[in-house]
Amino acid sequence: MPVIDPTITSVTPNNGAMAGYYYITIQGKDFDRKTTVYIDDQAATSTYMSATELSVQVPAGKRSGAVDVKVVTGAKGTATMTGGFTYNAPGGGGQQGQAPTITGITPNSGAMGGYYYITIKGTGFDRGTKVTIDDQAANTTYISATELSVMVPTGKRSGAVDVKVVTGKQGTTTMAGGFTYNVPGGGGQQGQAPTITSVTPNSGAMGGYYYITIKGTGFDRGTKVTIDDQEAVTTYISATELSVMVPRAKRSGAVDVKIVTGAKGTVTLAGGFTYR
């Protein structure tokens, strides 16, 4: 059986501080769970995300400048990106790492009461990243170098406020007016209504106790799902995906699927699931 060499298509971010101990994402193909990564010939702690993505902790640099990134799979396939990562020279005005970016915030509005989750997408995030919303620290969970899950704090005022991201390597970016606290009293709808774009599979046995995936927007960690008015065990995957255990049916045929988020946004997909 010939060895299949992996490929490296990108390293994000592709530079950082000499001190190391922050995370980068390597994308390519043909990675496996035994893949080892070397940066400037130093073994780097890596986490297999998929056959096309690795999350890698950068080791402390031996020297500043561009260095090679090497990937070796468990099957002994090898790929090297020459000069694929750059250790920044110390003393760059306090900016130790590449500034992150924010490309999107979902949902980008919600209730003044806070305590629901939003997803921030961008580049250059690491496990030390912190987020502030209207200058208030927000509980932040690192998902990847391009995604953060953030609990919105209670608002000090309604309206558009700034969202600021500071990485562990002190790169900073601000999205002016990136999040909006809704004015209280909007007919009881405290947060932005979620949406449902798909239910997969959208039918199943009456006995229940199997899982379906619901995709859409505006989900948070407090989201609850009912199927035919029966509460279903729900696992939050992201702001756009839920894993739901289907309850035992009361009747056969098409039934409604309802989602209520922790921010009290609600959506119903009429006939969204069918008990066979």
Give the helices and strands, then pairings.
Blueprint: E1 7-12, E2 15-16, E3 23-29, E4 36-39, E5 42-44, E6 46-50, E7 53-57, E8 65-72, E9 78-87, E10 101-106, E11 109-110, E12 117-123, E13 130-133, E14 136-138, E15 140-144, E16 147-151, E17 159-166, E18 172-181, E19 195-200, E20 203-204, E21 211-217, E22 224-227, E23 230-232, E24 234-238, E25 241-245, E26 253-260, E27 266-275
How is the biggest beta sheet arranged?
5 strands, mixed
CATH class of the largest domain: Mainly Beta
How many domains? The number is: 3
Structural class: mainly beta
Strand content: over 45%
The strand line-up of the biggest sheet is 2-9-8-4-5
- Runs in which pLDDT lies below 50 for 5 or more consecutive residues are 91-96, 186-190
Listing every helix as H and every strand as E from the N terminus to the C terminus, the arrangement reads EEEEEEEEEEEEEEEEEEEEEEEEEEE
What is the tally of helical segments? 0
Task: Output the radius of gyration.
Answer: 22 Å
N-end to C-end Cα span: 45 Å
The strand count comes to 27
**What percent of the residues sit in helical stretches (DSSP H or I)?**
under 10%
CATH superfamily of the largest domain: Immunoglobulins
CATH architecture type of the largest domain: Sandwich
Q: Based on Cα principal axes, name the global outline.
A: flat
Averaged pLDDT: 86
Instruction: Say what the CATH topology of the largest domain is.
Output: Immunoglobulin-like
